[in-house]
Sequence to fold (299 residues):
Amino acid sequence: MLNLTPFVLALMIGAEPEPLGAGDHTRLFKMGEQTRSYLVHVPKKYDPKKPTPVVLALHGAAMNGPMMAPFSGLSTKSDEEGFIVVYPNGTGAALFLTWNAGSFRNAKTDDVAYIGKVLDDLGTVANVDTKRVYACGMSNGAMMCYRLAAELSDRIAAIAPVAGTIAIEESKPKRPVPVLHFHGTKDTFVPFGKPEGKAPSFMKLKSVDDSIQTWVKLNGCEEKPKATEELTKEGEELKVTRKVYPAGKVGAEVILITIEGGGHTWPGQKPPASFMGKSTLAVSANDLIWEFFKKHSLK
Fold:
């Protein structure tokens, strides 16, 4: 059950919001004339005396933060590993929200500024390790991860996009940002290669390869990847491979996880609908994401 009461009361009486305890909480704040919100899951082993890593989990289009929680299963991983997971909400009608990640050309919401406000607000009620703030996301949320890496690199230590590619014209990060990208080769929503035919006029996306090569160059990685490593056992339906572009001098590597025959899904989780395609259950995106994030922090 979402815990709205403490913060709503704080708004009403002008008091300082109470520190968060373990569990799920919904936070609200004003951005201009808008009231924006996000869901935050504080793990059971959270110690308010210790700075705690934060993982932003950005939902896909036509979803919202509370829907992203069961879709990704990241709250369970949060409880296991002790990081705070935040499920921000995009904007739109009712529950069908989107991010201004660059792909929707008519979008005017400044969601980069919104994420900055989310982190500011969270810091007033939780002990956040500001050097270990990460972003992962699904589809449109993955596109937003790439935008955050390009425009909020001074606060985001590493990103893990799932089933989404770069949707902005140009990426100019202040610092190299490690990238772990997951994509299915039979994703029909965000194709692995260049979209066939003419893309809708309001969308513009890079291919997976273009997205990876963009960040290989930005991060100063070696141009050629290490030998491809298979992550699944022989005989499993969907073959999953990992291709690593070794880090340059600053340690910001780029990794591509390819799911052969995989659809528009979150590896390790069953898709909520068959039209999204197949998902591998033999490999957990959550396990790989946290393993990757633990290796990286802001200097």
